[in-house]
Design a protein that fits this description.
The protein is α/β, with parallel strands linked by helices. The chain contains seven helices and eleven strands.
């Protein structure tokens, strides 16, 4: 089995991979991660692990604990080898989640041009060529961030929930804000798809992240929705670096 650790700013997602399939997953607060991993690696036998963190400062205590039980450990960085070539001019600034999601999508459909969209706090739009090159991409504000910014940077607009009625055109302030944020992102995504499809006619679109499902329900195009692109990609990167 393999252990995948994807550490965010406040919480960490952990995945157990068994025979290439996600067998279990759990989300913990960062301050609880060490004890959870300590308990899990005592109960189960792991051949390898990969540890990715948005902080880019890895918990040495966690690495020490894992190293006692797990023979192969990879800490994600811009120098770690991946199945794709990175054409980004500043690979050291490229988010590990963007790399992992791209690798995850590429592993599903190698040999095709891919648009990989991660719709979370921020939204990333990344292009992978059919030759397996990460060509780069764009970063935009996510749905919740847009709603929060409209509230914080105006005098009277309220902070509305992203869940609720979603008309095409708002009929009051609440629905106008919600539709503006959600449908604005959907139209933005459709614009990327249309524009890139002109240059890459066989383009496949992958959508992941916390807002993937609700955006997919709005968009009238064929897309692949996969909430697990990042752990799938991290697992593929682990396989690429560790021969088990």
């Amino acid at each position: 089995m393999r252990l995948i650790i994807d550490q965010g700013n406040s919480a960490t997602k952990l995945y157990i991979i068994n025979n290439g399939v996600i067998a279990d997953s759990v989300t913990t607060e960062n301050d609880e991660m060490l004890e959870y991993v300590r308990k899990r690696i005592t109960e189960d036998v792991f051949d390898a692990a990969i540890y990715s963190s948005v902080r880019r400062q890895y918990d040495k205590r966690l690495i020490n604990v894992m190293s006692r039980k797990i023979p192969h450990i990879v800490c994600m960085s811009h120098t770690v080898h991946t199945p794709m070539s990175i054409e980004y001019r500043t690979p050291e600034t490229l988010g590990y989640d963007r790399i992992a999601a791209a690798v995850g999508a590429w592993s599903e459909h190698p040999g095709r041009h891919l648009l990989v969209v991660d719709a979370g706090t921020a939204i990333t739009y990344d292009l992978v060529s059919a030759q397996g090159k990460f060509m780069g991409g764009n970063i935009a504000a996510g749905i919740e961030m847009r709603l929060q910014a409209l509230h914080e940077h105006t005098g009277r607009l309220p902070r509305v929930a992203s869940d609720g009625e979603l008309p095409h055109l708002g009929y009051d302030t609440e629905t106008a804000l919600r539709a503006g944020a959600l449908r604005g992102v959907a139209y933005e995504l459709e614009g990327y798809i249309e524009s890139l499809s002109e240059a890459y006619p066989d383009l496949l679109v992958f959508l992941t992240g916390g807002d993937a499902e609700r955006l997919a329900a709005i968009i009238k195009r064929t897309i692949f929705v996969d909430r697990n692109l990042v752990p799938k990609g991290l697992n593929r990167i682990l396989e690429y670096n560790v021969k088990i």
